[in-house]
Amino acid sequence: MKRLLPTLALLLLIATPIVADEVKELKGHDALVYSLAFSPDGKVLATGSFDNTVKLWDFAAGKEIRTLKGHTKPVYCVAFSKDGKMLASSSDDKTIRLWNPADGKLLRELKGHTDIVDSVAFNNDGKLLASGSADKSVRLWNPADGKEVKNLGSHGNHVYCVAFSPDGKMLASGGLDGVLKLWDVAAKKELKSLKPLEKEKGKPALPPGAVTGVVFTPDGQQLVSIGMDRFVRLWDVKSGKQVKEMGPTPDDLYGIAFSRDGKSLATSGYAGYITLWDLAGGKKVSSKKLKAFGAYCIAFTPDGKAVVTGHADNHCHVNTLSGP
């Protein structure tokens, strides 16, 4: 593409900072940490682990608040509702559990998937929960009563990730089949499948590999995906066309996150790299190899001054960002 969409040009006018030093570790899980999420007020960090538990942490103090037990197999994803009053966790045990993070009590258990539930996400008003599973399906749930609202449809294989647009009108999903799908939430139907650009004129595009993560840009007009082919791809939501392709990175990508102000994008991967990206410029800004292997998930701290990653060493690592 010779130009970027105007909305994207406004997204990252300020240079992205670089990854600096590790300043903190959160230790407590007995197996790898596969997912993490901050509460809306930024005070609590939730982590999901292959030790079958979810832990809640006082992030500022670096101390564990409580452990949520109930899943019988590894926890693959954790997500807070926008008001912070509910926490969802999904697992290899084929269930989704909804918790009250204030007291750690189980609110309800959602059943319906027939294989690993890899990903969960709340919409903007917290009245819908989306899930993606190894049973190939993407589903919508009512968190208030735990009932399935709709099985939207399926991918050709394992669904790894789901994400709502900021206004909650669209849902994106991606998985092992290398396809990104966009769904109309109100109509509860598929809008389009997104495919990568042709590498050379007249030749079919190479498959992008498994899509392991997806996020909407803060304005909702673009979508960013990552995958096991080690590329970061930017898509125009309206047209469904690929706008940018950045990479390859040093490792398979698993974690992706925007800072809360929308000015920085970070990815993390299997080999333990953190990479920061300038989407407007379509380039990598900085990359750092962490001491800990297997950075499966990543999130910016609420103030945007650090990133937190979950690792195969069973810990969460906090790295500060420096500049500009």
Provide the CATH superfamily: YVTN repeat-like/Quinoprotein amine dehydrogenase
Helix proportion range: under 10%
CATH class: Mainly Beta
Mean pLDDT: 90
Shape descriptor:
globular
| SS-based class | mainly beta
Strand content: over 45%
What's the architecture, going by CATH?
Answer: 7 Propeller
Order the strands across the largest sheet as they lie in space.
1-28-27-26
Number of contiguous helices: 1
CATH topology (level 3) name: Methylamine Dehydrogenase, Chain H
Uncertain spans: 1-15, 199-206
Question: Helices and strands in order, then pairings?
Answer:
Elements: H1 6-9, E1 18-26, E2 33-38, E3 44-49, E4 54-58, E5 63-68, E6 75-80, E7 87-91, E8 95-100, E9 105-111, E10 117-122, E11 129-133, E12 137-142, E13 147-154, E14 159-164, E15 170-175, E16 180-184, E17 189-194, E18 211-216, E19 222-227, E20 232-236, E21 242-246, E22 253-258, E23 265-269, E24 273-278, E25 283-289, E26 295-300, E27 306-311, E28 316-322
Antiparallel strand pairs: 1-28, 2-3, 3-4, 4-5, 6-7, 7-8, 8-9, 10-11, 11-12, 12-13, 14-15, 15-16, 16-17, 18-19, 19-20, 20-21, 22-23, 23-24, 24-25, 26-27, 27-28
